[in-house]
Design a protein that fits this description.
Blueprint: E1 2-6, H1 10-22, E2 27-31, E3 43-47, H2 48-57, H3 59-67, E4 70-79, E5 82-95, H4 96-109, E6 113-115, E7 130-133, H5 140-144, H6 146-149, E8 152-165, E9 172-179, E10 182-192, E11 195-202, H7 204-209, H8 217-227, H9 229-232, E12 237-238, E13 250-256, E14 261-262, E15 265-267, H10 282-299, H11 303-333, H12 343-351, H13 363-373, H14 377-402
Parallel strand pairs: 1-2, 1-7, 2-6, 4-9, 7-15
Antiparallel strand pairs: 3-5, 4-5, 8-11, 8-12, 8-13, 9-10, 10-11, 14-15
């Protein structure tokens, strides 16, 4: 099979690796518009389960990724002048640049053709049996056929900035700071021996009240360094300003598509779906897409059958993740509902932000129920059953009220 992967991100590169491992005779080319080594962002997160999965499919790249990652087993939340720690699952952080470097080297060693600084347009698709649109949330290949794919973008409410720092966090760190214009908070995690990522988020009212909507990047970073001084320990924040020197504040957009393929064109990774960054699953989902597509192509000789199977499998797998992401984003959008709880309770509900039941139960009552459920199996079963039921009822009422 001749395959053209458009976009040299983790999804496209890992798919090319898997296809070559399955069948070295596959003719696979990855087309990337940027120069080799050029990338955006700082560090990405993933969890132990993904590393185990990668070891099953390509132990060599998995070992390199694991050796280049930092690990944590705790989360810490700072609220005003108080802090609390909780144990958690094993998390990992790796620099996006280093991850792409590993996957690029592995793909090249397996015989994948890598064409950097090569922009593919919808009017000039490569001649191939399969064209993979792994060109991100702004995918030009998907946009050309948006009506066919049923593309839908839903904008979140809050503003956020993705920043770097020389601070090395020893745990996944949350810091909530109260200002005269409302709350602003950050998520901090390490991705290298001398580097960390710091994602800052706030409501649009706080964003404008603090003057972040008009500040240039230098002034914006100076203000944020002052606000988060307690967790940065004097380390600077690093940004990625626009051409005019403006700070890069964004609104997260959730992307969904009704279908993921059209003829021999198939969507992969962020071109197919996005999930809110607060659950730290973007890179994991992109790599899992690549695994599922490689499996489907290997198991089905017919391309239409393979693409249909890939889409069905991934859509089903994404349902709980997309639900968790929606509720996680809403938790932060409704932060005043939780922020004045005692720190231990607030952090516990931060960990429960994916629950469909939490928005509909008073926070203190939910905390007591969750604590009791941790001790009684019957209550755990009731909670698992009741949450989706309440969420479906509320959703149905909301749809009725819009008519």
């Amino acid at each position: 099979m001749k395959v053209a992967c458009v976009g040299g991100g983790p999804a496209g590169l890992y798919l090319s690796i898997l296809l070559k491992l399955r069948d070295p005779s596959h003719d696979v080319t990855v087309h990337e518009r940027d120069p080799e080594g050029a990338t955006y962002g700082w560090g990405v997160t993933y969890w132990r389960a993904l590393l185990d999965t990668l070891h099953q499919h390509d132990p060599e790249s998995a070992r390199a990724i694991g050796e280049s990652s930092v690990r944590w087993r705790e989360g810490v939340a700072h609220v005003r002048d108080l802090a609390t720690r909780r144990p958690g699952d094993e998390g990992h952080g790796i620099g996006r640049h280093r991850l792409l470097e590993i996957l690029t080297a592995r793909a090249r060693a397996l015989g994948v053709r890598l064409e950097f600084e090569h922009r593919i347009t919808p009017d000039a698709l490569p001649a191939a049996d399969l064209v993979v649109a792994g060109d991100g949330v702004h995918s030009a290949l998907r946009t050309r056929h948006a009506d066919h794919f049923g593309t839908r973008l839903t904008a979140g409410r809050n503003r956020y900035a993705w920043l770097g720092t020389s601070k090395v966090f020893d745990a996944f760190t949350f810091a909530f700071v109260e200002t005269g214009h409302g709350w602003i908070w950050c998520y901090g995690y390490g991705f290298g021996p001398e580097a960390g990522t710091c994602v800052v988020e706030c409501s649009p009212e706080t964003w404008t009240g603090l003057g972040l909507d008009t500040a240039n990047e230098a002034d914006s970073l100076a203000l944020l360094e002052k606000l988060f001084a307690a967790v940065l320990d004097g380390h600077p924040l690093l940004g990625r300003s626009g051409a005019d020197g403006s700070a890069q504040w964004l609104t997260f957009r959730t992307l969904t598509n009704r279908t993921w393929h059209r003829g021999n064109l198939v969507l992969l990774g962020d071109a197919a779906h996005t999930t809110h960054y607060s659950i730290g699953a973007g890179t994991t989902l992109a790599l899992e897409d690549a695994i599922a597509l490689a499996d489907a192509l290997h198991e089905h000789a017919s391309l239409p059958q393979a693409l249909a199977r890939y889409e069905q499998a991934r859509k089903q797998a994404l349902l709980p993740v997309q639900s968790a992401a929606r509720y996680s984003a809403r938790w932060y959008e409704n932060l005043p509902r939780y922020i004045d709880l005692p720190p231990r309770q607030m952090f516990a509900l931060l960990g429960q932000r994916h629950s469909p039941l939490l928005p509909h139960v008073p926070p203190r009552l939910y905390y007591r129920l969750d604590t009791a459920a941790g001790q009684l199996e019957a209550l755990r079963r009731l909670k698992r059953w009741l949450g989706p039921k309440v969420a479906r009822t509320v959703h149905a009422r909301a749809l009725t009220s819009r008519r």
